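RECORD TYPE: inverse folding
INPUT: structure tokens
STRUCTURE:
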């Protein structure tokens, strides 16, 4: 009887040690990567009327699998655990006093990918101040996990807004969108 109890405790101890070791190995093989979609250049067409406006649509190539492998050769896109957005900034490259972000009352950035074609709002500002500005930091929801979008190579961005006033020309811009990606076994 004592022998059976001793064998049972020994087996439990071995299983606990093995499970603990496997978890330590899994945690050792992970990567936290700051992803930045390259500065996405686009043109806001001249805004000729107030109200809802489509500002830009842009497809961007980003090989997430290669980026993960460059950070840890044991991992790839199928090992993504989470992806959260950090920031979304739009900068005007040729705005002026009459053509700047004061023209927009609201602005949002939606995205999808070639593996998840459902558009989701990454960032949105609903009460943009009516002041001359050439950079727009759009608030993001950093708690949403976009993992299901990122085993991809093509990302589609759609920028829209609500115009409070018109502009007199097309305005060239760039968007910088940053994410935190965690991958592991």
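DESIGNED SEQUENCE:
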């Amino acid at each position: 009887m004592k022998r059976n109890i001793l064998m049972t405790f020994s087996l439990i101890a071995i299983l606990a040690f093995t499970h603990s070791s496997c978890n330590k190995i899994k945690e050792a093989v992970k990567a936290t990567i700051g992803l930045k979609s390259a500065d996405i250049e686009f043109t806001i067409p001249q805004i000729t009327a107030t109200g809802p406006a489509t500002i830009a649509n842009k497809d961007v190539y980003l090989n997430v699998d290669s980026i993960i492998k460059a950070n840890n050769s044991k991992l790839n896109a199928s090992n993504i655990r989470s992806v959260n957005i950090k920031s979304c900034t739009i900068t005007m490259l040729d705005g002026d006093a009459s053509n700047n972000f004061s023209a927009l009352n609201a602005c949002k950035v939606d995205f999808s990918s070639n593996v998840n074609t459902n558009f989701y709002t990454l960032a949105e500002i609903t009460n943009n101040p009516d002041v001359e500005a050439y950079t727009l930091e759009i608030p993001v929801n950093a708690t949403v996990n976009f993992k299901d979008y990122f085993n991809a190579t093509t990302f589609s961005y759609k920028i829209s807004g609500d115009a409070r006033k018109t502009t007199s020309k097309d305005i060239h811009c760039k968007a910088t969108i940053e994410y935190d990606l965690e991958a592991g076994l």
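NOTES: The chain has one domain: 32-184.
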